[in-house]
Every structure is written in structure tokens, then in C-alpha cells.
Known about the structure:
This protein is an alpha+beta fold. It contains six helices and five strands; from the N terminus they run H-H-H-E-H-H-E-E-H-E-E. Strands 1, 2, 3, 4 and 5 form a five-stranded mixed beta sheet that branches.
Amino acid sequence: MAPAWTNLLRRNWQSVAAVAVFLGFAAVHAAVFRPALARYQRAARQAAELGMPLDLVTTKPVAPARVAALLNQNSLNAAVAEEQGTSGTLAADLLDQVTRLAARRGLDVVATEQGLVTQLPAAVQVRAHLKMRGRHAALVDLLGDLARSRALIAVDRFTLQGEGASQTFEVSLSQLILKRTGATR
């Protein structure tokens, strides 16, 4: 090597080392990270084609069909929900639904009582209290029917009294009815 070049390299060895490190990083980037980026872009494109976009900034996530059907089944227009909640229609519907299920299971409904109706910002919560007579297995079947009914009904508490076929059950229930707004539809 010519003495002028050697002298120049000795004076600027830090710059030469920096260029060498840059070239090393560029080679690693080209060999490792570019293929990984291509795989990610391909996977993101395939996910978007299947209806599952990964870019949540530009697209809103869509609820699955089962969830959308469940929300639609358990919601009312906000004005209608408030009106029916205040008038007692929602509580009467809850008592009617549970009474029919109890009769189907062979339970005798002795007494029903509408509970409080709570108006929440995005929902209406309806409470009811029932007193029934029958077999323990029938109560278990009734609770199973309530669980499968696809309504947002919760058993808050229940008590059992007696033995055999003359058992008495007291069940406190609550149902949540969502309020539909223009933004949710």
C-alpha cells in the first residue's frame, strides 16, 4: 500500500471503523431482517384477506357473528329500554320467561315479585324474585335452561327449604338489557 494511503488510514482509522461497522450491520439487516419483514407483511396481508386485519388504526374490529347476535338479542333502543324499564314491562317479561321455564320443568310457581329496575348509562338492570315448589332436580334443570337461554340473566341468590318433592325454592334473578345507541349500530 502506498505510504500516503497508510498515513491517511492512520489519521482516520475511526471513520474507517465506523464505515466497516455500518457495512456489517447493513449485511446482517439484508440477510436476517428483510426476510422476516417480508414474512410479517405476507402474514398481515393474508390475515386482512381472511377478515382479521392486524392494523387496528385504520380498521375497526368486527364482532363475530355469534357475539353480534347475542348483543342484538339482549338490547333495545335506549329510549324504548328506559320507557319499558320504568313502566315495569321488562320486569314482567323476565318473570313471564322464568315462569314459563319453571312450568315446563314441573315447578309450581307460588309467588312472583318484581324487583328494582336500575337505569344504568348503557343498560337497564331488572330484578325479580320467585318462590317455587317442586323437586331439586327440576330446579337444577331450570337453572340449566336459564344458562342456555342466551339471555343475560344472572341468579343472584337462591334458598332451598324442605325435602323430597315438597321442596320450596326462593330465587332472586337479575337481567341486563343493553341500550342501543346510534354508535353501536
